[in-house]
Amino acid sequence: MAYMAVETGLLNAISNGIVTGSIVALGAIGLALVYDIGDVPNFAHGDLLTLGAYTALLVNKPGTVPGFGALATDTRGIGIGGMAFLFAVSFVGVLGIVYHLGGRRALKGGWWGIDAPPSVAVAVHVLAAAVVGVLVVTGTPSFLAALLFAVVVVGALVPLMESLVFRKFRAKDASVAMLLIASLAVAFIVRFGVQTIFGGEIRSYQVDTTIPFAGGQLDITFAKFFDFFVAGNGFSLAIRETRGGNEIPLATFSYSWIEVVAVVAIAAILGVAAYRWRTDTAGVIGGRLAAALAVVATVVVGGTALAPGAVPETAWYATRVRASPLRIGIILTALVMMGLLHYLLRATTLGKAMRATSDNRDLAMVRGINTRRVMMTVWIIAGLFGALAGVLLGFLFSNLSINLGFNLLLPMFAGVILGGINVYGAILGSYAVGLAMEVGIFAIPGLSATYRIPVAFVVLLVVLLVKPEGIVGGN
Amino acid sequence: MTTVLEVEGLEKHYGGITAVDGATFGIEEGSITGLIGPNGAGKTTTFNLISGFEEPDGGTVRFRGEDLQDLMEPSRDERVIWGGASAITAGTIGGIAGVAGLGLGTVGGLGTLAVGAGLGAGFYAGQERVRQAREGHTNSRPYMLAREGLVRTFQITRELTEMTVLENLMLAPQGQAGENLANTWLRRDLMEREEAEVREQAREMLELLELDHVSDERAGNLSGGQRKLLELGRVLMIEPEVILLDEPVAGVNPSLTRKLMDRIETLRDEGYTFCIVEHDMEVIMNLSDTIIVMSEGDVLVEGEPEAIQEDEAVIDAYLGVD
Amino acid sequence: MAVSDVVVSFALLVAIYGVLSLGLNVKFGHTGLLDFGHVGFFLVGAYTSALFVLPPDDPADFTNYVIGFGEIPLVGTWAFGIIVATILTGVIGGLVALPTIRLREDYLAITLLGISVIFQRVVQSESWLANGPDALRGYSPPFQGLFPIEPGTLVGAVAFSVVVFVVWAVATAALSLQRENDSRLPLDRIYAVTTFGLGTRAAGVLGSRFAVAGVAGLIAAVISAALLLAASLVLLVGALVSVYGWLVVLVAIGQHYADLDRRELALGVGFGTGLLVALLPLPIADRISVSIVGTLALLGALVYAYYHAITSYEWVADVKLTVVGLGAVWFVGIWYVLLPILGPLGSGSLSGVLGTLFRNVVWFLQFGSSAGIGYSIAVIGDVTVQLDYSRFQLALFLLSLGALYTVLEAAVQSPFGRVLRAIRNDEAVVKSLGKDPFVYKVQSMVIGSALGGFAGAMWAMYSQGLTFRTGAPETTFIALLIVFVGGVGNNKGVLLGAVLYWGFQQATTQLAGFFPPALRVNVLAFRLVVVGVLFLIVLYYMPDGLLGREEYSSGVGDS
Lengths: 475, 322, 559
Hints:
The complex is a heterotrimer.
Chain A: H1 9-37, H2 45-55, H3 57-60, H4 80-100, H5 103-107, H6 118-139, H7 143-157, H8 159-171, H9 176-198, E1 210-213, E2 216-219, E3 224-231, E4 234-243, E5 246-256, H10 257-278, H11 287-305, E6 317-323, H12 325-347, H13 349-359, H14 361-366, H15 371-397, H16 406-418, H17 423-443, H18 452-466
Antiparallel strand pairs in A: 1-2, 3-4, 3-6, 4-5
Chain B: E1 3-14, E2 17-28, E3 32-36, H1 43-50, E4 58-63, E5 66-67, H2 68-71, H3 76-101, H4 105-135, H5 142-148, E6 150-152, H6 165-170, H7 181-186, H8 188-208, H9 224-237, E7 242-246, H10 254-270, E8 273-277, H11 281-287, E9 290-295, E10 298-303, H12 305-310, H13 312-319
Helix pairs in contact in B: 3-4, 8-9
Chain C: H1 3-30, H2 38-53, H3 78-100, H4 105-125, H5 127-130, H6 154-178, H7 187-194, H8 198-201, H9 203-206, H10 209-231, H11 234-256, H12 262-279, H13 281-284, H14 288-312, H15 314-318, H16 320-346, H17 350-361, E1 366-367, E2 373-377, E3 381-386, H18 389-412, H19 415-425, H20 427-432, H21 437-463, H22 473-486, H23 491-512, H24 520-541
Antiparallel strand pairs in C: 1-3, 2-3
Helix pairs in contact in C: 1-18, 1-21, 1-22, 1-23, 2-3, 2-4, 2-21, 3-21, 6-7, 6-10, 6-11, 6-18, 12-14, 12-16, 16-17, 19-21, 22-23, 23-24
């Protein structure tokens, strides 16, 4: 029997903190963009997450949605009417998102940034909408289809907040206080709108959590144990899971110290090289990102190649971290989405316009940037990311309540303000807040999980009192 | 004549930019001093520094021989608030600790609470120092200067747009009994008597400024010139010694400008001291007893208007010649 | 249920939210401090006062709380608890303000929201403190033990006369205002009678009309106490007070709408009737979906017609709010007075019709409960009447509201209030005029938070059970709505806003009764959606509220 590792709460708290941070970050991205470019400290943003989480139920459990149940065959099956409905909604949703970017002209490709024949653009948009519709309908009632559906619908609905409410208030030169209060009213409407349809009971998704993996079955919600050993001859990692009281090893990675040193050295060299290579370029991948990617790639490649080995009999130090594939998936999803956002901001015309508007709106207007389109893009992104965060949160918590998103509002605000109200800062700030929440609960004795949000808030308060401009950026 | 305001080696930097660079000058009591200079010479920054709205990075400003920084010590009210808060907080923590940690029971807890409150009040003295050290350079207290008789107006008039013209003026007098919350309940008679006096005073001021016909108008509805008059009237209601006027006639029509200048001269003869930043050369040259020319954050020349108009260095500075 | 019982439960909430919103109005309306965490003080006030009247915790039962002062004489009373709750929340408000008050307004809003969430979470998760996530019960509201009252006893007579005092004083004050308008009714003579001659003779001695009203109320209270002690004339006194109240209300409505010409009156009545017609599908249609769709469609049509009318006809636009007000009065009249007698009328029961009418007229008393005094009246038959506790509680609440309103008005109608409004307008000006905004903002937070705490204590009395949901952020939102509807910075407007908000709530609660219980949650949530939409409309079209910002230029010392 191999040496056993003991679980340490701190590492677990850190890993939980990264998961929480990922979800907070997904939400905070939209909040930060709207705060920064739209000048609205949007108190309704938390409820967008709720809206997204409940919208997914339409696909995931159509039979339980009041009103829609008539089109469903049972809890999870839908009839032809239901299919037509979901298809139509997704189809209109996609086209709606495009429409928000500038009306009919946007549908004809006005937002593409390149000159394309209108007929081609229209065809592409319609085709995309149809593809999404088909994906949703054929995917029903799977979780991914539900996610896609929620993201599209909320992405199309949220910009309406701007065009129906905030744009009008801004046109009247409303003060920040007015916009704040208006957003609170919108929050009220969204939250209780959801409750009007879904009622007061707590709901949950039904997800088939077992997926085929490496020849066996893998339940993604079951926690896996990651045991780390530091021994005289090297460092090892064993992944295990508990089933029926027995611990079953899933995989073992073992490295001698020489291997560790080699990989670290190569990673460092490649990292520095990548940094030198990409720094001072204005492209998608700047210096720091390139270095990070190089290091990660080296560690992954090296780690896989040198993996074979066994768990040591004794170790100087051993510890165990608990993580489920679902949680890892959430982290990866968040990273992928951030990558996409980064690409959008750096490499597309729209993204460049957004950054210019963020720097100086008047100047951007003078330079002929369509600030209204930028504004709508911001709200669309807020909707897309918010819905994603909401659905993931609903899945992770395995229950949906009406306060799901509102409860996350303070952590999101904390992340955004911590980051100095800009989108990159908000991502960093959100991870800081997520970590603070989980580690705080763990580290302070007698603090129950109810105090997660107060901990996030205390972080915010300290930042506001000490350094109101945030941890990132000057102003 | 005595120098009522002495400025010595004043400095102010914003990031890498130096706005005021060692300016030194003095303002005589009962005189009108004009402060001029090309754009970016640091006039407005100097104004903010000597009115306490910004903190200098170097140098001193003395008002009647006292350092501005000393005059801007926290007011008694502010000290009471912070001291009370410290006492309450320390007392509560002490009381809770006494009951929960030491198991003293209710009576013991109350005793600890009292001791804690005492400690808190004592602790306050030290804490106040810490707070001052921390905030000393971020929170100036210009209102303390207004109480001492040094007031200013703003370049872009800042009237209380939602309040009436009369209310704008009635706000100004110092030390009104009714500004104390307890007096609004307990000394209503005193307050009402004083309020009637203040109202009378404000009406007289409005008559003087020929604004009496708009006294119940919201200040936001006034014309640009009327706003300048209102702002002048408001600082006069404070009955100050030194008045710093930031571009008092910008945007005011010529006949009103004439009136304003007359008013200022009359007030000077009554003993008020003025320091004026103004771009209108004709006005400033006619009005001022002394002119201070600033350039690149420092005083270039100081002298009587006639001499300044002849000065080569001044002409060069305005033309941008090095 | 008689109209009055509905009105009493509605007025209790108006009083509580009136005080709560007055507190927010001090902070936001007068000083410009956007406190999104106002409910935090409400929560602290509620729990604090409850702990003062609860008996010491019994470790054996299921509820746990840290301390209960209920058995200590003097300390364990509501009066003491409310005072402590008010002072404590004021102090907390001040302490919270110290570090945060310098923040930008959006940061301030977020920070204060966060602090209220912390309060809520502490109550929720610390089960030793105040029973944690479960409700804190086990106390009764003040003087409830005296009810149902014994008319022949001294305490009973005094309790009864307290309510008489409040009603009589309020009605007399209102009448004295109405007297100033032209009226065909002999209001002067009525006023002379109801003030027992004071209104015409001793007005000079007593000073203001409010002093006259107070003394008149006192006399009426003494007389009614004597009548109760001597002869247990509960019904007689109740009927007299009721009739006086109706007189004042009807005169008020009449005077308020006296200026309307015929077509405007018709429009208002039409609006009210339209509202009634729109609700017809609810009781008539069998299927719930049909009734919902029908009602919503008719309501939509009504709103559209109204919108169309105010945008196309100038004379309608001029009276757009009056029409809604008149329609509401008309609607309430029919809904509560006419509809209840339709049933007995249909069955031809004259005594039923008169009985219903009688119960509605004598609003001062509660009918038909088991306790009380039985009377036999011609035609109507046997009735049992009593003065129930909720009417007494309402009298206490209205007294508190009136007192707090007066104290607050004194504070803001002064140079102090002027500085607050100047801070809201432009802080730099205040600084340049030798006044320290910090000191004033802290005081504003203290007063506003203390009022929030007082309202919390009232809530503790009213609800007789507290949970951490008492501190839900929605409450702040409602208080904010009330402030905006009536008029930001206008205390009178805040009271109007509270009346309108709870009027809306009351009306829609009744409607929810038509839906099956399973759908209640949805209907009540939909009501809040409507509230949110109305709030946006108010914010956009009437940012200064119905009454607008108050003009203070003729404040004190100008009379």
